[in-house]
Amino acid sequence: MTEIKTIAVLKGDYIGPEIMAAGLAVLAAVTKNTTFQYRLVALPFGGDGIDQAGDPLPAATLAQAQASDAILLSAIGGPKWDQAPKRPEQGLLALRAALGLYANIRPTRISDALVARSPLKPELARQTDFVIVRELTSGAYFGEPRVLAETYAIDTMAYQVSEISRIMHKGFRLAQRRRQHVTIVDKSNVLATSKLWRRVAREVAQDYPAVTVDYTYVDAMAMGIIARPATFDVIITPNLFGDILSDEAAQITGSIGQIPSMSIGESGPALYEPIHGSAPDIAGQGIANPMSMIHTVAMMLSESFGEKQLAQRVTAAVAQAIAAQVVTPDMGGQATTEAVTQYIVAAVTQPA
Ligand code: ATP
Ligand code: MG
């Protein structure tokens, strides 16, 4: 008897639920008549958590998410909760911390059909295929003390060797499955944490003799992503730099409305989410691009459940929709969320 996987569904806010519905429709379609069996558990979270349970991360949501095999999250937050005592985003920080999700993984690839929309020259765009591995639970966003006074403010950037070492191993292991190249990002000409970052990277690199390594300052890296994107395979970066570089990387793909990400820890369920926000400006209009969530579903099938072929069918179906120009306005088309979803559902249902 096959095991039934449990997927926690945190449906999100504003366009969140619109694209979640699309992702789940594609999940249902691609797994139909296969051995992959799952059940969905919908849990209040983010703004929806505040509305339903008075908390962006209700205790019951955390407990059930922890007990699941994977967590599917859609974009959260928005102006509705600007005055709330706790912001929806605090729920996400708390969830990542509670699950120990210290590595955020974002693939950056430009599908042939999107090359024309990329701000890069076509020949550069076509060769772009890298993954950013961003440290997620430490560094400048979490260091203490943190002070905001009238005439001064303090943030603290701090890293433990153990925190650096584990993210390095994640990145190097990922490189072994790819093109065997790692780029270490830091600012070690100035920052102490970056000097430590580089030292630990050199030590960890010894364990992976087949992987070649480059060391790059973050400012040079910001240029590199635009000027020579094809030279990167796996990029390992501290939290703050990774936040900035991954938004830059998203821009060169032609639309943020189609990019997934995953966050993983040492054990326990991984969390899958589109990289973009809840886009309040277009919510309720039926024009949100569902491809981000559909790619997110593919990533979950592949990485948490080892269903590479199902994932491949989903990605191929998305590519087919793009090639047929069945795309939403953010990608230059006129299709609705519903039309794009139906096209992709039909494409994954077709016998291979
Ligand atoms: P956050 O602070 O939550 O990251 P943001 O202000 O950075 O939000 P996003 O919501 O990430 O903004 O995206 C910026 C804009 O891109 C949105 O306002 C929206 O117009 C567009 N956008 C984002 N995601 C999508 C999508 N899936 N489909 C269509 N347009 C999108
Ligand atoms: Mg943003």
- The CATH architecture of the largest domain can be given as 3-Layer(aba) Sandwich
* Strand residue percentage: 15-25%
Order of secondary-structure elements:
EHEHHEHEHEEEHEHEHEHEEHHH
Basic shape: globular
At the first level of CATH, the class of the largest domain is: Alpha Beta
Note the gap between the termini: 25 Å
Give a short account of the largest sheet: 10 strands, mixed
What percent of the residues sit in helical stretches (DSSP H or I)? 40-55%
The CATH superfamily of the largest domain appears as Isopropylmalate Dehydrogenase
Low-confidence stretches: none
Count up the helices. Answer: 12
Strand-pairing-aware structural class: alpha/beta
Number of domain modules: 2
> Strand sequence of the main sheet, in spatial order?
2-1-3-12-11-4-5-10-8-9
Compute the CA-based radius of gyration: 20 Å
Ligands and ions found: adenosine-5'-triphosphate, magnesium ion
Kindly identify the CATH topology of the largest domain: Isopropylmalate Dehydrogenase
Enzyme class: oxidoreductase
GO molecular function, one term: 3-isopropylmalate dehydrogenase activity
Family: Belongs to the isocitrate and isopropylmalate dehydrogenases family.
EC number: 1.1.1.85
